[in-house]
Amino acid sequence: MRYVLGAKCVKCGKEYAAVPDLTTCTCGGILDIQYDYAAIRRDFSPKDLAACSDWSMWRYRPFLPVEERSSPPPLRVGWSPLYRADRLAGELGLNTLYIKDDGLNPTASLKDRASALAVVKAREAGADTIACSSTGNAASSLAGNAAAAGLATYIFVPARAPKGKVAQLRIFGSTVISVDGSYEDTFELSKAAIGRWGWYNRNAAINPYLSEGKKTVTLEILEQLHWQAPDYIALSVGDGCTIAGAWKGLKDLYAAGFIDKLPRLIAVQAEGCCPLNRAIQTGQPWQPMEENTLADSIAVGVPRNPDKALHAIRESHGVAVNVSDEEILSAMRLLGRTQGVFGEPAGVTGTAGVKKALELGLISPDSTVVSIVTGNGLKDVQNGIKAAGEPMLVKPDMDALLEAFARRGICPATSTRKETAHE
Amino acid sequence: MRYVLGAKCVKCGKEYAAVPDLTTCTCGGILDIQYDYAAIRRDFSPKDLAACSDWSMWRYRPFLPVEERSSPPPLRVGWSPLYRADRLAGELGLNTLYIKDDGLNPTASLKDRASALAVVKAREAGADTIACSSTGNAASSLAGNAAAAGLATYIFVPARAPKGKVAQLRIFGSTVISVDGSYEDTFELSKAAIGRWGWYNRNAAINPYLSEGKKTVTLEILEQLHWQAPDYIALSVGDGCTIAGAWKGLKDLYAAGFIDKLPRLIAVQAEGCCPLNRAIQTGQPWQPMEENTLADSIAVGVPRNPDKALHAIRESHGVAVNVSDEEILSAMRLLGRTQGVFGEPAGVTGTAGVKKALELGLISPDSTVVSIVTGNGLKDVQNGIKAAGEPMLVKPDMDALLEAFARRGICPATSTRKETAHE
Fold first, then answer.
1. B330 interfacial to chain A (CB closer than 8 Å)
2. For residues A155 and A132, is the Cβ–Cβ distance under 8 A?
3. Which terminus, N or C, of chain B has the lesser number of Cβ atoms within 10 Å?
């Protein structure tokens, strides 16, 4: 790890060697991986990336805390598409909007970036079993990435996890413990089990390597924008690890001279579960909240990474905005109808927040914004149907079709385009 | 369309100009797009591809029947990963196996390749509305790709279509007609409606451009294998359009001098619905069958593209193999557990067929095989759970966990790896 200096507690500043199974500081604080940016700047530049043919998160190896001898895990993670979303921008009244569809990762969420890193670090630690607790996506991404690498997994999820995520876990051969309780309960049980059996710990707020994987999402966004920083990057916030990772990636690029301006973060939480945004908005320390939202991935009443997340939002001069479940469902329809992107509820929450921030005048319509879709809507089909409704059921004949159209006020225009004869 | 000569009926040989809204021949036969391979060979080589930075299906434009002035549609389709699957090959007793995970396309199936092409041709035809009937994936891919391009869609699916596909359709803003009948009924109603309202027709067996989109899957596989043809390419077969497209791609590459050997196809159908394979196995003309399989995407009792499909299997000296629903569910678990790939039932049917073909001695264990996973398992979560079972539900305390483990005979080993102290 040529460019890694070590790890440092974000709370007390204590320093640690970057061994592969680092967890938290003795003071309870979360660790942050430290890099030698002068050396990265000397050895590595956007030109090297332009010549790199590895179209995955591993193209950013100088920014990643893995041993030079470690090979990347089997699944192809990262380099998800960044779409210029002019039609959606038009509807929102925003100058320029990009959608980063991270639901196109191998297990269909951004969390694959962290899990791929966890698999490498677990192998470096000599572990053959990895465990984690998760609202669902960290779990299914760990299960898939570990299965492909031949590692066993023990996964703890709250019983409320959507069926799609549970199906992934089971198909990937994990031992799945569905916990009849909250995410907090689930986390505590996983912690006790990891302590008892000594599995490699992939809990994102415990293991400081994971946000290093997550940060590749912003490394990619900036490369896809040819190193021109947007004004804002919007994303949903639950545990706080993803927004912390996103900010770390931006700061890495800034420190290494790849970009000369830092975007501001738009941190979006659900109204019914917004402990971190409430802390930003009130200036008070964060307090636990109920987990009252249908966006399961961010239904986190006791965020596990509050320090890094709050620091990221504040240091970026960020915007904290909360959205209702109805606004989340509406954003699912909006992204689908205008851009052909189907996100899960937490996946579209960032976009719902962009809309809300514009309505509240928190950001200017002249802005350039990137919104990260963090997970695929196929993971939570029930809420997809809830957002968009069931289709019309019709008997297989034309009269039945005409009647069904009439009942719904659907009047298809007969095509007026020029008929092109066959011959 | 510099390299397109025209279209030719596969039944009567009648030739047509390649106008954008071509359908079938006056004799009822299906058309095939014809290319000037000598010109392609003169202008285009693997070296050009090595220098091409478009990592999507559009890197193969000289092989695609679209106007030079047409821009690709918005969603990033193609260049899905090809994984070397050594762990799965080991379990099957096969020398070399690759998995092409086409479930990682934007709407999570191979059909995005055809729908992207349909969107381009519809725009060339000046159409603002596209319609199709489909078992589900062609539908959801059309809905997503058309939404991103700002085109309206009318989609006909059988009522049995899995919820994941229906949710996609609704989220993408399609007018969805769920037909209370078989796929055959659905197809006929769509045909009548398209005739009545003159929408652009994306029915794959009617519109000859669509298999030209699908063929990009084999163009990619061969490029990913550095133009070294495998012995076999395995895939599931329903309507017959996908296997016809796969073969077209291989023949294109052969005719243009990119490869010097043609792989053989392994055509896999469900035992309960195998009209095309039955024709191959018996040497008799194909006959309709019941649609008796849980693999909805290939539950096609009256295949719409029998001529091209049967020709492809025969011309490639292909292998026809049928698998039971239990073998399909087993392949879902096998791919998930060994490779971290979650395919829908029809998506893993190709892999189930590879296993079966080895067991029956139809292919040699020394072979090199590529198996195409045609759709993501998240589209059909119900069958994912059916394949892999529900997780254990546990109260949030250690005693409950220990009891649940004991009841299932799970004895986690305590980690023996070296403890790395923090300090």
1. no
2. yes
3. C
Secondary-structure percent of chain B, ordered helix, strand, coil, rounded to 5: 45, 15, 40
pLDDT tens-digit profile, chain B (423 residues): 999 999 999 999 999 999 999 999 999 999 999 999 999 999 999 999 999 999 999 999 999 999 999 999 999 999 999 999 999 999 999 999 999 999 999 999 999 999 999 999 999 999 999 999 987 899 999 999 999 999 999 999 999 888 899 999 999 999 999 999 988 899 999 999 999 999 999 887 889 999 999 999 999 999 999 999 999 999 999 999 999 999 999 999 999 999 999 999 999 999 999 999 999 999 999 999 999 999 998 999 999 899 999 999 999 999 999 999 999 999 999 999 999 999 999 999 999 999 999 999 999 999 999 999 999 999 999 999 999 999 999 999 999 999 999 999 999 987 766 544 443
Reading the block at residue A395, the tokens are 């008997």
Q: What residues have CB less than 8 Å from B331, skipping those under 6 apart?
A: B323, B343, B348, B349, B351, B352, B355
Domain ranges of chain B: 82-108+210-386
**Chain A residues with beta carbon closer than 8 angstroms to that of B342:** 107, 144, 167-168, 171-172
Walk across the sheet containing B152-158 and list its strands: A392-394, B175-179, B152-158, B129-133, B200-201
Minimal Cα distance from B332: which residue of A?
A: A171
**Chain A CB within 8 Å of residue B108 CB:** yes
Locate tokens 């199974």: which residue?
Answer: A21
Locus of tokens 């990474």: A305
Interchain contact, A398 vs B75, CB within 8 Å: no
Extract the tokens encoding A347. 């996946």
Stated as kind and residue range, the H or E segment containing B129 is: strand B129-133
Q: Do A376 and B108 touch (CB under 8 A)?
A: yes
Dihedrals φ, ψ of A372, to 5°? -95, 120
Interface test with A, best of B183, B342, B402 (most A CBs within 10 A): B342
Residues A320, A243 contacting (CB under 8 angstroms): no
Supply the DSSP symbol for A142.
H
Task: Report how far apart, in Å, the C-alpha atoms of A129 and of each of A67, A154, B35, B260 are.
Answer: 20, 8, 53, 45
Tell me the C-alpha distance between A138 and A181, whole Å: 18
According to DSSP, the β-strands at A82-84 and A96-101 are: antiparallel
Pick from B58, B333, B381 the residue to mutate for testing the A interface (most A CBs within 10 Å).
Answer: B381
* Contact check, Cβ <8 Å, B172/A387: no
A418 interface with B at CB cutoff 8 Å: yes
Which chain A residues in 276-305 lie under 8 Å from chain B, judged by CB atoms?
Answer: none
Q: Which CATH number fits domain A82-108+210-386: 3.40.630.30, 3.90.320.10, 3.40.50.1100, 3.40.50.12780?
A: 3.40.50.1100
Phi then psi for residue B299, to 5 deg, are: -85, 75
B347 vs A352, B127, B134, B275, B342, CA distance in Å? 33, 32, 16, 19, 9
Residue B233 bridge partners (DSSP): B265, B370
User: Minimal Cα–Cα distance from B388 to chain A, Å?
Assistant: 5
Distance CA A22, CA A40 (A): 23
Q: Which of residues 161-190 of A touch B (CB under 8 A)?
A: 163-164, 166-173, 175-181, 185-186, 188-189
User: What is the spatial distance between Cα A10 and Cα A34, in angstroms, rounded to a whole number?
Assistant: 11
d(CA A272, nearest CA chain B) in Å: 23
Q: What are phi and psi of A400, to 5 degrees?
A: -65, -35
Query: Do the Cβ atoms of B74 and A340 come within 8 Å?
Result: yes
Residue A388 has its nearest CB partner, among B145, B170, B418, at B170
